Amino acid sequence: xxxxxCHICEYENExxxxxxxxxxxxxxxxxxxxxxxxxxxxxxxxxxxxxxxxLSAGWDAEIFLxxxxxxxxxxxxxxxxxxxxxxxxxxxxxxxxxxxISIPLTDIKAVRDCKMGLIMKGIIIDTMDGxxxxxxxxxxxxxxxxxxxxxx
Length: 152
Ligand SMILES: [Zn+2]
Hints:
Largest sheet: 7 strands, antiparallel
Order of helices and strands: EEEEEHHEEEEH
Structural class: mainly beta
Radius of gyration: 15 Å
CATH architecture of the largest domain: Roll
Shape: globular
Low-confidence stretches: 78-97
Bound molecules: zinc ion
């Protein structure tokens, strides 16, 4: 069994065959690292939510921005019914890894400021089909600038 560290999320994938060449966590193509490059990573104190306004600051996640996608990997997949709290449009973007939210940059319409809970500042990412995801990352301004630049 060969191990390959994902160039996007750093997960240590065990590669058994040519068929399983995609990262088990973020689904990046491990055999074609030139295809997708990581631009930003926030792997500590990042939060996400899929509703616009909420008193809750959100859930813990690791968040990645690549040349192709915004990737949100929830750290703890809480046991509530998915459909109940994920908006339908975001749910549809979820991949075969049921916990992952993966939004192609081409599906992002806009990026704007918001609050996460009562105090923290975050970013709202609006998608083309009317969905949204809120994230709280360190270096928020840098994330906003880079996302805005990538979706231009
Ligand atoms: Zn990965």
